[in-house]
Amino acid sequence: MSACVMGKNADVERMYSDFAPYPGQFIRLLSERNKIIKRFYTSLAKARVFNPQKGYAFAQSIFQNFCPSPSSSIRLLDAGCGTGEKTVRFACAFPNAEVIGIDFSEGSLSYAQRLKEYLDVTNVKFARKNLFSDPLTDLGPFDYIHCAGVIHHTEDPLVPLKNIVTVMNEKSYLWLLLYADYAHRHLENTRRIGLHMLFPDNNMISKRVEFLKDIGMARYTGSNEERPIKKILRAKRRLIYNVKDLWFSEYTRETQSSDTDLYDAYANPIVWYYKTEMVEELLEGADLDLLHYVCSPRNTKYEEKLKPYLAHRDIYEAMKISECFHYPNSFWLIVKKQIGSRGA
């Protein structure tokens, strides 16, 4: 596991509160003053994201074969919910569920609350909690927990993970996203190190993003300039996809590819990157069993070809082999408490 730990938890909290509420896909919609435009994109948001069918499809993509039925009366925790888009989607997916989103960023939570109220989703609530230092037992237990891209932005990821385990029982499922030390994440880490060497003071974190904008760097391409081939592909999409779908994706993409994304990708004071053996060490340290993994982005061709060779192997050995072929930027993990573990 490699890391870029150049700050404290408080530096990360300040970044997400003051500069980069994340992911912020619907901040633009919530702040839109033109009533006609707002009404139009609100209708698209409800049709394409925030409704029971789309919400449940999203939940299935997360929890895979462990996903409960849409009518289930579950308790679901979104640990590190940020601006709450996914939390609200879970609430839409499971209308009989009690859904709670927690985050340490007041700036992000303010948008999450606004989104909930704007869409009038009643079975979700948000609370400020610091996974690193605040006890969670007053909230739990939960049947399902979603924690995407959170604990690897803390000084010691095992601490918040153990905290999450306190609101799990032996029937609970935890979905966990961790950055992998491959693909564009490895490039991000290299650039982040250089950026932090240029601007080491976390009290001047905005200077890092100003520099990135000045040199024209985006999160994944290394440049904000649109290459000719990309323009051609975008034109092709306009012919293939429903025009409303394209409008909507561009509307949300423009928000997330703004300064917020640069803060999250490069200016972040703390980031840990994992390989399989360190995932195993992390989960074992929290008394968790790995049930299922996905190397993201997925390559279904590799998955199908590898499947017969992995069927009877230890899950971590299988994951290591998959990692070598997929070269993933993230690990998607579904875990449960070990039977008889501490605190069970």
Describe this entry's structure for a reader:
This protein has 344 residues and is of the alpha/beta class. It has one domain (2-183, 271-337): Rossmann fold. Helices cover 49% and strands 15% of the residues. It has helices spanning 9-19, 27-31, 35-48, 52-63, 85-93, 106-119, 158-165, 183-198, 205-215, 228-240, 243-256, 259-267, 276-285, 300-310, 315-326, and strands at residues 2-5, 75-79, 98-103, 124-128, 144-148, 173-179, 270-273, 288-296, 330-337. The strands form two sheets. A seven-stranded mixed beta sheet has the order 4-3-2-5-6-9-8, sandwiched between helices.
Give a concise summary.
The chain has 344 residues and is α/β, with parallel strands linked by helices. The chain has 15 helices and 9 strands.
Record keyword descriptors for this entry.
two-stranded antiparallel ribbon, 344 residues, alpha/beta, Rossmann fold
SSE map:
Elements: E1 2-5, H1 9-19, H2 27-31, H3 35-48, H4 52-63, E2 75-79, H5 85-93, E3 98-103, H6 106-119, E4 124-128, E5 144-148, H7 158-165, E6 173-179, H8 183-198, H9 205-215, H10 228-240, H11 243-256, H12 259-267, E7 270-273, H13 276-285, E8 288-296, H14 300-310, H15 315-326, E9 330-337
CATH topology: Rossmann fold
The SSE order reads EHHHHEHEHEEHEHHHHHEHEHHE
CATH C-level name:
Alpha Beta
Strand content: 15-25%
CATH architecture: 3-Layer(aba) Sandwich
> Separation of termini?
29 Å
CATH superfamily: Vaccinia Virus protein VP39
Strand order of the largest sheet: 4-3-2-5-6-9-8
Main β-sheet description? 7 strands, mixed
Low-confidence stretches: 221-226
* Radius of gyration using CA atoms only: 20 Å
Summed over residues and divided by their number, the pLDDT gives a mean of: 88
Count of DSSP strands: 9
* Helical coverage, percent range: 40-55%
